[in-house]
Request: fold
Amino acid sequence: MIEMAERGVAQVWRRIKSIYKLQGNKCETCGTHYFPPRLVCPQCRRKGKLEPFTFKGLGTIYTFAVVHQAPEDFKRQMPYVIAQVDLDEGARLTAQIVNVDKEDVKIGMRVRVCFRRIKEFGPGGIIVYGYKFEPTMRVTGHEEKAATTN
Amino acid sequence: MNNRVAIIGVGINKFGELWDKNLMDIAYEAGMYAIWDAGISGADIDGMVIGNMSAGRFTGQEHLGALAVDMAGLGDIPAYSVEAACASGGAAVRQAYMAIKSGEHDLMVVLGCEKMSDVSQSEAMNTISVASDWEWEGTFGGTFPALYAFMARRHMHDYGTTEEHLALPVVKNHANAAHNPFAQFQSPVPLDVVMSSAMLAEPLRVLHSSPVTDGAAGLVVCREDLAKKYTDTPVIIEASDQRSDTLALHDRKSITTMSSVVTSTRCALKQANLELKDIDVLELHDSFSIGEIILTEDVGIAKKGEGGKALEEGITEIGGKFPVNTSGGLKARGHPVGATGVAQIVELVLQLRGDADKRQVDGAEKALAVNIGGTGATSIVHVLGR
Amino acid sequence: MERIAMVGIVGYGVYVPRYRIKTSDIAEVWGEDGSKIGQNLGVFEKSLPGPDEDVATISVEAARNAIKMAGINPVDIGAVYIGSESHPYAVKPTGTIVSEAIGCSHNITCADFEFACKAGTAALQAAMGLVSSKMIKIGLAIGADTAQGRPGDALEYSAAAGGAAYLIGSKKPLATIEDTVSFTSDTPDFWRREGEDYPSHGARFTGEPAYFRHVGEGAALLFKKTKTTVDDYDYFVFHMPNGKFPIAMGKQIGVPKEKLEDSLVVRQIGNTYSGSAMIGLARVLDIAKPGSKIFMVAYGSGAGSDAFSITVEDAIEECRGEVPTVDDYIKRKTYVDYATYAKYRRKIKALA
Reply:
């Protein structure tokens, strides 16, 4: 139990700026945005100049799935929606979509980032926080597209 | 100098949940079958390569090379594992191929093996997930089935592939496996049963997915000029190619094409001086049925978007123009991860020798196998010929 | 006591989770009369957090709203204080998780506050002190909770989830905090021992000797210090453990009913504990005209009250529409049944 509880500490901590705030990087040489941050710009390699870049947090759903069988970590949320989100600035990432009924999720839906619990290393271990996405709506500070779902 | 590489022996055990066998029991069995099939003696073997994805996580053991040589009583010959996720088996084949082609080795045993049922379902799912980008896909809930579901949904959106199309490879492969005594599942499964099975990661269902399996497959490979000492029916590895792509599916240019497959297939065919139309039988990596549809397109059997149609038209049935997965594929034969790439070669060798019994493709002379790692980050293609 | 140097609210934001459970659905499980309970408590449904939400996530959403409203760069925040009685860790500050997520610099002072339902307003007072003494330029004080009620207990009907974040500064506030006083005594009306899953309380003891005494004394102290009376204020906000106590408190002090109405968010979202008075205040700020005066008294069991006299400034009109309002969050809701509520709130022991 202790072994499980103390796992993941440094590995998660190293990524905090990326998973809490969507900090990736941008290659100043070719203008490509990357999330998560890359060690090397694959287009430019040695000629590339990578600078930290924090994404706005807005994007569009490119594809999605509804997971009905998942590992222990996600049992409480099943079934959950997971998607590939195209961030406005050009990078694409994989994240859960929350605050929505699964029937209403569509390719092309506008979403914005929110801060949620991702998982924990057991009841005694650290809690991993990070990004999930929700449809843009009044409570995300955007225009309401359709009536509030109840 | 003729440095062609020949396969002179194949071995495979019945795949399944093998409760009374541990990893070495399983690997040894397949290896011995291959050695008997080749008619060689232990002293002829000068090296071993093992394809295995994650014995460490599944069974707690690494350093399989030394362990296997030890268990087989093969003295001090060199041996090690190679890992490329679900393409570990293909990687092992390629490794031995390169070792013999370079002249460094004369005759080797290739073993693909995996023991997956010693851990819980949850742990098995997590372990398979590390074939994808664990940190940026798996951690956030992107299970391996979810990633293939991403591909399926996009393929349906872009090309009109239907739910029925997703079920067709499953029906075909189970029908084929009914004639394969080594397959994990040996009964046909009707279309409506596949289409009404429980949801796994929508739109993929449980029956669209390959199972958790224990199993091993083995080959004996050697220089072509040595082969005639042991057999009249050597099968030549006419080409071997491997390509990489981004680890995370979300970094690909397209998620409805595996460009690593497109390139490695083209390069392998070129190496073998062949065209696709020359290929008589194929094994295409179907970890999920959408995978078979996509690979059917990516190797060139069907145009992009028409993989489902090819299945509808029976083009990839045993009697069709391009029989795919006569063994039952990963879906019905089973998918002990590290063993799969080698199992594919075993099936194709049996086909080319005319030993595939009720699954036989008449007059098969050239074969092609595509073994994938993760969601297409690795593609390993072999072309075999008589 | 001397007048404090000018200090006020430069931005605020709230967050209430999407999920609600009806009083009648809880009552049905325990064989009680749902509509009677609803009437008696003045609570008809309450909010609950999703399985991936907690005080840290609620605080981040509320703080991001506050920062957007204030139009500040988060690196200018000098202090981050989170008040709650349901911090995610028993030992490890919520404040550091929040400050990292909202983009604060490393040069901040940070701590978690605890004082039952007034942990947030205690944080507010601390931030005020740092700003008015010029130790920092801007302070962030958050009151947030994902309070738990013992299954089958009266508090189960009202214990809810939500939070409010306030940025305190001295430059162009949208509302000035004229003054603040507190009344504190050792009164054990509600407590939870280490290791216990749910709190215990003194039932009727939580009324007169606890809530009413401390809120009443706190209010009296504030009137005295500021030399004001009920008539000088346009809006009143009291801590809302249920829909009845704040109304009874208002009656005791002589507050006309209409001056209390706008802050009574408890009826639709329940008691958000450290978020309660602070969300009530936010709702008033969402609608109050410049020049209005607000009288707020928060209460925390154990016990104590923090009272504030607030004046709404012209600058508030420029901020309207920047971020979602309290009503936007109240209106955004999805009902769940008791089984789902129990699953999300980890009341089922077998599931880790």
Summary: Chain A has three helices and eight strands. Confidence is low (pLDDT under 50) at residues 146-150 of chain A.
